[in-house]
Amino acid sequence: MPDIGILISDDIVAVEHAALRMVDEAPTMPGSIAEKLGLKPGDNKWLKMHGKDPYIQVEAGENAGLGVKDYKIVEV
Length: 76
Description:
Elements: H1 12-25, H2 33-36, H3 45-50, H4 55-63
Helix pairs in contact: 1-4
């Protein structure tokens, strides 16, 4: 995964959701396992590479009242 930046938030659910989405939207790196698997931007990379859907924890965090999954990226 190329360097896609640093995320900061006081909402752990929102920052986790944003991080996961950024990873999924990013292109794969040449020679990586993701490239060898034929993963493309928009694919759920963790699910396809590891068989586990990371978005379950985002839903669980929101359902537990730890935060909300809505976010807005502000570049500085």
